[in-house]
Amino acid sequence: MSVTGRRGQIAPLGRHLIHAIAWRPSMAAALVAVAILGLPTLLDRQPNPEHTLRSVRLAALLLGASASVALADQMDWLQVPTPRWLRQWLRVIIAVVPCAGVWALLTVPALAALGTGHLRFVVGLTAEASVSALIALLGVAVAVRFRRGNVVALAGAAALLGFVCATLFLPDEWAAWPAAGAANWGRVHQWWWCALPVLTLGLVAANGDTLSRRYTYAVCKR
């Protein structure tokens, strides 16, 4: 198929995907994010940095997990004249962009209320939010290769929960979620940024057409 023909398919395919995606988890996550981030920012004239960081991180986890649900809609199992990688990446864009926008609109004012040095937090927390979203997306992208049904959408939240549990109780010198005044803030977030290309490559592989077509056909016929 020519590039021009493929471009012509993106708009109608995107409209179908928007209708196929389950938006309720993202809407619920956005409302919770507004509650835990927006309200304290408006009500507290002297916000606590630690409370703000926890709220920003929780909002990122909720929105990242909800965005990953988009990769598990039933349209993925239909016979359509478009490559799978195109459908999957359209799903990622359609779901992630609104969630990222909500997180950014809530996070920047919340961190700006902390005063001097808030840009340092923005950079680090953006890395955390990006990695968290990629982990959730990768969890569902791998799961839909082998299973179908609404339960597969929970794979992203499960992967993210496993990651948080594995990193939450590390020793202080290896803490993946450093406190606001931690001396190792910059060093820790260098590792977060290093994880981004690795997870992105994993998502590229999971969203592609590299696995056996025969196996995928067999799963679809179950």
Give a written overview of the molecule.
The chain is mainly alpha-helical and 222 residues long. The protein has one domain (3-220). Helices cover 72% and strands 0% of the residues. The chain contains eight helices and no strands. The chain has helices at 3-20, 24-43, 49-68, 84-112, 118-143, 154-168, 185-207, 213-220. Helix 2 (24-43) runs parallel beside helix 4 and helix 5 (118-143) crosses helix 6 (154-168).
**Helical stretch tally:** 8
Radius of gyration: 19 Å
Strand content: under 5%
How many beta-strand runs? 0
The global form is: globular
Question: Layout of SSEs?
Answer:
Elements: H1 3-20, H2 24-43, H3 49-68, H4 84-112, H5 118-143, H6 154-168, H7 185-207, H8 213-220
Helix pairs in contact: 1-4, 2-3, 2-4, 3-4, 3-5, 3-6, 4-5, 5-6, 5-7
